[in-house]
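Sharing a chain and its predicted structure for anyone who wants a worked example. Both blocks are below, sequence first, tokens second.
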Amino acid sequence: MEHFAEREMDSETKTEPMRVLVTGGSGLVGKAIEHMVKQEGGCLEGEQWTFLCSKEANLVDLQQTRAVFEKYRPTHVIHLAAKVGGLYLHMKENLNFLRDNLRINDNVLQTSHEMGVTKVVSCLSSCIFPDKTTYPIDESMIHNGPPHDSNFGYSHAKRMIDIQNRGYFEQHKHRYTAVIPTNVYGPYDNFNFENGHVLSALMHKTYAAKKEGTPLQVWGSGTPRRQFIYSLDVARLFLWVLREYDEIDPIILSVGEEEELTIKDAVEMIADALDFKGQIVFDTSKSDGQIKKTASNAKLRRYLPDFTFTPLSEGIKKTCDWFVNNYDIART
């Protein structure tokens, strides 16, 4: 009889609906996951989803991290929170980015361990890849040499998540893993000229140039190549990783290598989307950052051969429309 009761308890524990805590829930990817969960049927019956923003808890602080975990008692964590900035801010403050991100990540992962969280999916970034490398880059190459100098602090802190995940599995058998999206863009991004991601900053600049009737000033030569992925596509893939992906090793979330295109091509798509007819000037006195960081999505395709990505022109149009319609609340 006891054995039966134990078995019954086991099966109950296994089927208990997830309580998911999303750190960095008010950012670009957090908002996209929230959209999928609340409006696209991404939430299964009985699940509780909490989207945490930095106002509720400063995750650099261990006590605040513990308090928020005590409050929500998550069974699963999607860890998106990070101290981030644009290329130029990273170049000025590498040490701050290193220290703050090491603390945030250790606090979240160790608190998850202490509170018995079943699974953590953390978000890495394609800027963690080695600077001197062969292309395309895949998941096995993350630690093969130093990252680009421009944001070495942030990159090394992010790489350590992968190392910690390995440690939590070896020592405690936890299934903590990570995803590596390439360049994400979409609604709720940071559209600030200096600190924003490249596409969003360019959307804001184009919008302003159109309004003021001035030329569009693009920082750099326009020649670097990038793989851009729409935030709602990333959100769909995050839900799949949370529910289905069982590896500890990270997985790259990206469009295919053939989808990589230059900043110049992207600027032209943005100009089209915002109906900007003025002059476009490339300021080559400004740094380009990495010329390319082509990532392979072969591993993702082995798991999900039929996943359909939003075409870039369509995603840019949707994001530009969102920015124009939500200018008052957008991060600018």
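Comments welcome. The longest helix spans residues 94-114.
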